[in-house]
Amino acid sequence: MRIRMEAGIQYILFGVMATGFMLFGMSYIFGLTGTTYLQDIVLGLQKAPQPAALFAVLMVMAGFFFKLAVFPMHFWVPDIYQGAANETTGFIATVPKLGAVALLIRITTLNPGGNMTIVYLLMFLALCSMFYGNLSALVQTDVKRMLGFSGIAHAGFILLGLLTLDPAGFAIAMYYIAGYVVMNLACFLVLCAVSPNGENLAIEDLKGLHKRQPVLAFILAVSLFALAGIPPFVGFMGKFMLLTGALKAGSGNSIYLLLVILAAINTAIAIYYYLSVVRVAYTSDPEDRPEVAVDGLSKAVGVLLVVLIIIMGTIPERIIALADTAVKSIM
User: Fold this and answer.
1) DSSP codes, 136-180
2) What is the spatial distance between Cα 108 and Cα 65, in angstroms, rounded to a whole number?
3) In the chain, pLDDT over 70 holds for what percent of residues?
4) Cα–Cα distance, 218 to 241 (Å, whole number)
5) Residue 319 Cα to chain centre, angstroms
6) Contact assessment for residue 139 and residue 223, using Cβ atoms and an 8 Å cutoff
7) Is the pTM of this model over 0.85?
8) How far apart are CA 209 and CA 188, in angstroms?
């Protein structure tokens, strides 16, 4: 109970700080443009003094970086994930991030004069998020903390779509976050089933899951394979398109090439700790751990999520088309 109270207080305090940054940026934007209408703001920022306009946009973006868990607005993630109930963590780790990406896309389009400073800053934040998240996840023993740090790394990958400043890149970012939500929901479904009383699970608690509950072990394996970026799942297709999109946006720029190489290295790092969990679930004996009782509805939902993970990875065109339509509607 004490840990959960501390987690709640942290979430409130960090949320207030992020909201303060965002509102401060909004006040700057209003002062520079004299309007709160986004279309008029875009035109107004083109004529506004660039340092001030750039600062205002970055402050607004910082508020949404908090929801997406982008470095350096990520500090709340591991403690909140560990301290909150499994169901609550599953919600925090998925649904708010869809809205955060959509709003970040809209704010990115406010970039005054196509200023490359924002692009380079997004590159830096993407790399910091990926390396910090993945390297920290390597040493975790708690499943939710591991997923929290990996979520920071995935936020870095999403920024690869935003820094293209292109509707196609934005659409791929939306596609990736949609896939991430499905993959994470599958993981948390397994956690909630294995731990029905809501207690935190160590990775060791998943020992012998393939014998204790084969269906849950399969759902967990597929979702972790997908998060690691292994084909033919949605995680692989999303990462592949984000990397190729960033490379194409660079048009031979060596900075973009370096960014893509470092992102690919992070994919390799992530494979290690994701597959370590699968190894524990499939190659270890249950020892004295009890069998897991799961109702038919939970199994059906889990299998549906697995099917979505596969379909989104093998037939992405339709989903990307929907994402492209959604992006154009908010731009």
Assistant:
1) HHTT--BHHHHHHHHHHHHHHHHHHHHTT-SHHHHHHHHHHHHHH
2) 12
3) 97
4) 26
5) 18
6) no
7) yes
8) 15
